[in-house]
Amino acid sequence: MNTVDNLDAELVAAFPAIALERASINEPTSLWDVYDDHAEIVALAGKTWRELPSELLFRHPSLLVYAGDGLFRAVLPAYLRYLLHERERFNALPFQVAGQLTRTSDPDRHKKFDRRIALLTAPQRAVIRNVLELLSTVRPMEEPMTEALATWKQL
Questions:
Q1: Burial of 45 (0-12, 13-18, 19+ CB in 10 A)
Q2: Kind plus residue range of the DSSP H or E element containing 139
Q3: Which residue in 41, 81, 93, 144 has a CA-CA distance of 20 to 30 Å to 134?
Q4: With contact defined as beta carbons under 8 Å apart, do 124 and 132 qualify?
Q5: Rounded CA separation 54/121 (Å)
Q6: Chain centroid to CA 155: how far?
Q7: Domain count, the chain
């Protein structure tokens, strides 16, 4: 079984620290018109996933739902890292992340899921699967992370 430290190192190795661009934040696949705090998300321009503070991630548990495909891939490792290290503060964040990493039978969500992960590399997919495996053992995330893990074992 992977340790938190090993998985953290795998995330860093698999996901380059590329600065977010405003264009990637506002890409056409995003759904910001229904998001309450878009201004704070736009302010992320110039930061990498490694620089996103845990407080921001905690305040925006549903960001992955509304983010466009590129932003989803760019910030996903920050959310996974947060969940690897956080053991006390939970809101909807682990459930939102698990939901976005689960392929459902809903045709629209299925297409969105496939489109988002299409550009992930083999090492990125492997580390996501490994993180989900560990998170599926952590309370209170066992059930949703186990469902997400089932999806990633099929990829």
A1: middle
A2: none
A3: 41
A4: no
A5: 25
A6: 17
A7: 1
Range of the domain at 103: 4-153
Instruction: Name the 3-class secondary structure at 102.
Output: coil
pLDDT per position as a tens digit, 118-138: 999 999 999 999 999 999 999
Q: What is the DSSP string of 17-69?
A: -PPP-HHHHT-TT--GGG-TTHHHHHTTTT--GGG--HHHHHH-TTHHHHS-H
Choose the weakest-confidence range: 25-39, 70-84, 95-109, 126-140.
Answer: 25-39
Length of the chain counted residue by residue: 155
- Cβ(77)–Cβ(123) below 8 Å: no
Distance of alpha carbon 20 from alpha carbon 27, whole angstroms: 12
d(CA 119, CA 3): 26
What's the CA dihedral at 54, 89, 60, 76 to 10 degrees?
A: 60
* Joined tokens for residue 82: 């947060």
